[in-house]
Amino acid sequence: MSSMHALAPSAEYPITDRNRLKRRHDRGSYDRCSVHAILDAAMLCHVAYVIDGQPFCTPTLFWREGDMLYWHGSSASRMLRHLKAGTPACLTVSHLDGLVLARSAFNHSANYRSAMCFGTARIVDDPEEKAAAMRAVVDRFYPGRSDALRPLTGQEAKATTFIGMEIEQASAKVRAKGVADDEEDYALPIWAGVVPVRTVLGEVEPCPRLIDGVAPPPELGLYRAGRSLDEGLTEAQHAYEEG
Amino acid sequence: MSSMHALAPSAEYPITDRNRLKRRHDRGSYDRCSVHAILDAAMLCHVAYVIDGQPFCTPTLFWREGDMLYWHGSSASRMLRHLKAGTPACLTVSHLDGLVLARSAFNHSANYRSAMCFGTARIVDDPEEKAAAMRAVVDRFYPGRSDALRPLTGQEAKATTFIGMEIEQASAKVRAKGVADDEEDYALPIWAGVVPVRTVLGEVEPCPRLIDGVAPPPELGLYRAGRSLDEGLTEAQHAYEEG
Question: Which domain of life is it from (chains A, B) (predicted)?
Fold first, then answer.
């Protein structure tokens, strides 16, 4: 784990014009751990890409393996057809953690964690990498589950396209604090405070057509009712990485 | 409210190559009500824009007035400097509503609501429109609150830039149902079901420096503990529209 090890990735992503934070430097960082923690707490990301000068912002499920990001969709989708040759993309994850009501309009804010990742998105066409992605898209979220499923058919494999992108640059941005008013405003008789926001899991709704006696699988324990989705996804990522 | 009224906006956004759904047509629509409902339930969006061929995907707070979308940031921000001349943008909102575990990898899915809006983003430089935005950025989320705040200073107004974009095309996409397995897979002894996901508000954390006797304002009632953020934001939008 020493950063002196020749093969260890450096602690920070390289900083270029693409990912350099242009404002609120106090909220930002470039280190891998911060970026990965924000990514691993999410299932949904937004990917920006360009077709003929027109930007598109597409929401999609994604997952991370080291510095690789993967997402998937039908080979018919607009984005994927255009990505075949490899195209610059920006994948962003954001978590809204709180509403911040201040004593002035200017100091109203939100608590959040976000990560922006830059790279070149490419279709995964290597058969081994694609087979691994077919398992990962299930097992990253539900560790061990792919072994228990009905095996993939050849037709399903053909109809599935995965996109892979190595993170070339990235940045993380976090606001996680209370009201930050101008010093003289604290004396005003105006209410200020934070409303926390949390994304939580509800009671599982089993499929009404379950075969009698089929018990909930162990991976469902990660997503028990009342837990944060964040926590469940982060724990699932760790379990997935440990194999 | 009749669609025969000459001045009423048509029920659907025009369909062009930009917003035409390329897959899962069964989940999509182009009607204003569906798109607006998804937007109005959110505070956070992701905006895609392009600088020198490089796509950026930026998370930001936003709000809607009719078919106009607004978001804001420091005039120093990368996005805004490049948007001054007006630039194509795509603003997307997504809500994750559930994890869908099926009997095959292929039928794993998520419940979600998303809206993609296309248009030309421009700096709001008309003084009246900017003054209105200064109030709206507070009042859309906290109806009536801007009147109770310490007034904006000239320096704050100068340091604030708003972006406006009229929605030229848009689409909505929704998955809101249970497991959809292949018919023959329902006979398999594999667990399947849905884990609902909800974004909820926590107990308010008042600023520790509140002046004695300052009571929580009425607009905070929209964001009471245990309520969905969705619901609070949707109700706030209605209150804001009713003035």
Answer: Bacteria
